[in-house]
Structures are given as structure tokens and as C-alpha cells.
């Protein structure tokens, strides 16, 4: 489940000294929380892209009919509701929205823990080198080999006690 909130706004000043307001979009997914900063125009672009692939709720207006603009807190809440509506109305969250929220490892659909999905995992080819290195190795089985020196080998004895309790 994805949880999205827009608790605040931040101001950003570009190279030319022009300031712009960014919505702080906080995303909670699988116990991990991150945030992305988005402009109002990015929400409009998201809405246009989503409209082409799914039925979307109306994007909240930037303006209040009685005022010149809406209070920013009201606008933040409306945009939060908009994103949450899209998530809750769609069983498969659109990739466009996942990209907008910077979620790369989100699995859609109901394939959470079915046996078919586990079989799919087993059938995949995972042919990439593992970054493991051997820590200890033996040329012969130390349990069967005779000691060449009269001194006790504490490393071998410790490993043998761990592997073959007496």
C-alpha cells in the first residue's frame, strides 16, 4: 500500500533569482518514507498523462472562484486527495504515477504471495555474479586429516567444534 501526503511547501530560488513554490510530496511505501518536490505544473503534466490511460478525478483548480488564488494549504490538501484517489481507484497503480512519486520497485496487482508467483521466481534466470568471497577454505577435510605439527590448530578446532559437536 502506498500512502501519500503533502504536508508542506518549500520555496526554491533558481539561478536568475526567481522564486517558485514546490509541494513536498511525502511517500510511505513498505515502511520506507521519502519525499519528492513537485511544482504545480508537474501535477498538471501528470494529470494529462494519466487521462490518456485511466479515468481520473478532476485535477483541483488552482483558483478559488471568489478569490484570485486558493490558500496554499487548501491547494496542498486537494492535490493530496487527488493522488490518493488515483491510488485507491486503481488496482494497478499506473507507471506514470509511480515515476512521479519516484517508486521504482512497486509490484502491482494481486500477486503478493501466490504459488504461481513463487514458481515464476524459480523459473527466472538469475545469472549475475554474486559478490561473495570465500572466507575460509580447506584443501582436505580437516576432520579426517592428521596434524602435521605438534601444535594445536585453534582455528580448525573451533570450526570443527561448530560443525561437528562432540
Describe it:
- By secondary structure, the chain is of the alpha+beta class.
- It has a domain at 2-101: PX Domain.
- The protein contains 5 helices and 3 strands.
- A 3-stranded antiparallel β-sheet has the order 1-2-3.
Strand content: 15-25%
> What string, H for helix and E for strand, traces the elements in order?
EEEHHHHH
Shape: elongated
Distance between the termini: 50 Å
In terms of per-residue confidence, which ranges show pLDDT below 50 for 5 or more consecutive residues?
109-121
| Mean pLDDT, all residues | 77
What distinguishing features does this structure have?
alpha+beta; PX Domain; single chain; elongated; phosphatidylinositol phosphate binding; 34% helix; Sorting nexin 22; PX_dom_sf; 166 residues; 3-stranded antiparallel sheet; lipid-binding
Summarize the structure.
Keywords: Cytoplasmic vesicle, Lipid-binding, Membrane, Protein transport, Transport. The chain has 166 residues and is α+β, with helices and mostly antiparallel strands.
Topology diagram in text:
Layout: E1 2-13, E2 19-29, E3 32-38, H1 40-53, H2 72-89, H3 95-100, H4 115-123, H5 154-163
Antiparallel strand pairs: 1-2, 2-3
Amino acid at each position: 500500500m502506498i500512502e501519500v501526503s503533502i504536508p508542506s511547501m518549500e520555496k526554491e530560488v533558481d539561478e536568475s533569482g526567481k522564486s517558485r513554490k514546490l509541494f513536498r510530496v511525502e511517500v510511505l511505501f513498505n515502511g520506507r518514507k521519502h519525499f519528492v518536490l513537485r511544482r504545480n505544473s508537474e501535477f498538471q503534466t501528470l494529470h494529462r498523462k494519466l487521462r490518456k490511460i485511466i479515468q481520473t478525478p478532476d485535477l483541483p483548480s488552482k483558483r478559488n472562484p471568489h478569490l484570485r488564488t486558493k490558500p496554499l494549504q487548501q491547494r496542498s490538501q486537494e492535490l493530496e486527495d487527488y493522488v490518493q484517489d488515483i491510488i485507491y481507484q486503481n488496482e494497478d497503480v499506473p507507471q506514470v504515477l509511480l515515476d512521479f512519486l519516484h517508486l521504482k520497485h512497486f509490484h502491482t496487482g494481486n500477486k503478493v504471495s501466490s504459488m504461481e508467483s513463487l514458481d515464476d521466481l524459480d523459473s527466472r534466470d538469475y545469472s549475475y555474479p554474486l559478490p561473495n568471497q570465500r572466507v575460509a577454505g580447506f584443501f582436505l577435510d580437516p576432520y579426517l586429516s592428521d596434524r602435521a605439527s605438534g601444535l594445536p590448530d585453534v582455528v580448525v578446532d573451533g570450526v570443527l567444534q561448530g560443525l561437528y559437536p562432540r
